[in-house]
Amino acid sequence: MKTVNFTVAITDLKGKKMVQGKDEVMMNQILANTISMAKAKKNPVGQLDLALKIYNSKKEMVIEEAEIEIVKLVVSEAQLSSLVAGQILKALEGVKKDGKGSKK
To answer: How much is the pTM?
Structure first.
């Protein structure tokens, strides 16, 4: 088990938070919607549950290795910009093992 925080704003190349209208563009919302709209791989119910878990996360969340693999696969196959996909994958690189701050 690891912890990761997807509840952060997507930033532009200058590090400025991106906004749509008046709202910040949030990584957890983009990722959850991407997972929920992606073609189901092996377990569509599990994929939907993961999307809801990410969407409803408030800060750091516990994520299993199998869920990390789903995120990586879906992001690599989705039509996301490098700016967005890269930030999602970088968030995964910084996951904390067992919630104790050690990195994978």
So the answer is: 0.86
